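Could someone model pyridoxal-5'-phosphate with this protein?
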Amino acid sequence: MLLNKSEFLFNRAQQFIPGGVNSPARAFKSVGGIPVFFNKAKGSIITDEDGNEYIDYVGSWGPMILGHAYPPVVKAVQDASFNSTSFGAPTEIEINMAELVQRMVPNVEKVRMVNSGTEACMSAIRVARGYTGKEKIIKFEGNYHGHGDAFLIKAGSGALTLGQPSSPGVTKGTAKDTLNADYNNLESVEKLLKENKGDVAAIILEPVAGNMGCIPPEPGFLEGLRELCNRHEAVLIFDEVMTGFRLARGGAQERFDVWADLVTFGKIIGGGLPVGAFGGKKDIMDVVAPMGPVYQAGTLSGNPLAMSAGLAQLSALENHPEYYVELEEKTEYLEKRMRLLLNEHEIDYDMHRVGSMTSIFFTSETVTNFSTANTTNQELFRIFFHEMLNRGVYLPPSPFESWFLANSLTYEMLDATLTAADEALEVAKA
Ligand code: PLP
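Reply:
Sure, complex below.
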């Protein structure tokens, strides 16, 4: 596969953009090589600057659940743009969006639109703190909630109980309010709650982890967190930026029948435009300005183009429950056959799938959390990734990312992916 133009563009980009990309995950750091530059996509076929076509399993990292350039989304954006790209004043479409979100996710009694998943999670934490009057939060190692300071904190090593900033520029002062627990380990959460009795405002998590590969919650984990939050009067926040409107109309909450106090959204809710949202119980959301004292704002929040795109995509999902069934069947088809291939090639692996999220770990361990995810053979993934890319399959360029399937994938595309995987595994294991 020739990537001449991508290479040229990447060299040019690096002169003007840090690392040549506007978000680090795009830079191919974990797999090496030149990041592919794209210029168009339709459905599940994405075309690069050199004219190469790929079957897309990234879907812009999740938003494109119905495929790229989904006609109702394209039309909605076109139509809205003729009436102004922004008002900075209230519009009816924002109410339509809030009502639709509430229908699809019934415990979101009130919702505030923002411009990214990061903003949604930052705001949810502030609201939880304002509501409870407490300052600390518990998050989980290997979960990602965007680049807000409070989330860029890793667990202290060994005997250190205090978290450490995981990025320069994040202060130690911030780090002291973020506690890290072990995913799928309720005891680690109970321990932190005990050590910080009366100080924990919120527990935030990805109800299905998608940022250390795809890792499902073990039975009882989400229920246990719900119970701990009730007992300790902490706000339970589900970060459904990836899982929202993907795992079911009501996201992971509906799929697992565990209901959080606050939920954050991103990705699918914007139909590919920059949208995030946070919402939940009325009494909590009513602390948000201008109703309440917790400040939160945005010049472009509820932007008409973004709302139109999101509304078009969510409406399609609301009106076509069969899309979820089809998408799950397709993902299961891929998973089952991929497992057979991995077995045939006698490669150590663990593979998870929840709905249309899946990923492969090249390891002999059972992957349930950050430390077991880290046992994956990254070199094997690197080779597998490039062999797949060369055969026209665009996977997330990291072993620690979930694959996002779209309903625009056809069984022919899935079969082509499996043929490519068979060959790629043959090379990778050598
Ligand atoms: N939360 C989760 C679970 C995510 O996966 C992401 C991004 O991938 C975010 C939050 C941050 O969203 P954004 O990149 O829109 O700021």
